[in-house]
Design a protein that fits this description.
9 strands, Arc Repressor Mutant, subunit A, single chain, 4-stranded antiparallel β-sheet, 3-stranded antiparallel β-sheet
């Protein structure tokens, strides 16, 4: 097999993938380019079938699995230029979830819902005895996010009003 086209991992007898993200179906003598579908998160996908079971697969992942070595066994594939529709091998890299999020923040693709000032206000309200559900409604977030903020799991880098960046103590 040449370096521009490779077999799709786990679907070797039915599908091929190109370096630029095209997926090709092979059924006997019939060869057909599959039409990608954009999923709800903006990634291009294709439906692949094997043994009567159909699976929706993200194209960038198929390209990475076929062409990009992953010696560190990183679980995610990052679009280097931030364009989810650009599935060329040159635009993809293996990464961790943390690396992927940091890259998205750096490119301006990931917007934080709360400002540092909001986080300080949330912690202050919690210390004053306000219920987490009420605080969540005030800031338009879910209660679990408030819980994670007041216990230092989210936004641990944001100091409270006294300049401390430590998790809040559990209140009885």
């Amino acid at each position: 097999m040449n370096s521009f086209i490779r077999k799709v991992i786990d679907y070797e007898s039915r599908y091929l993938v190109t370096r630029d993200g095209r997926i090709i179906s092979i059924k006997g003598k019939r060869i057909k380019r599959l039409t990608p579908i954009k999923n709800s998160k903006g990634y291009l996908t294709v439906n692949l079938s094997a043994s009567g079971v159909r699976n929706q697969k993200r194209i960038h992942r198929l390209v990475a699995e076929a062409f990009i070595p992953n010696p560190e066994n990183k679980p995610e594939v990052n679009h280097i230029n931030g364009d989810k529709a650009d599935n060329r091998v040159e635009n993809l890299e293996w990464c961790t979830m943390k690396e992927n999020i940091n890259h998205a923040v750096k490119l301006g693709l990931y917007k934080r819902k709360l400002t540092d000032e909001n986080v300080r206000k949330i912690r202050s309200l919690h210390l004053a005895g306000e219920q987490q559900l009420i605080i969540a409604r005030m800031f338009g977030v879910c209660q679990s996010m408030i819980n994670n903020i007041v216990h230092g799991r989210y936004y641990p880098h944001v100091p409270d009003s006294e300049g401390q960046a430590e998790p809040m103590a559990l209140q009885a």
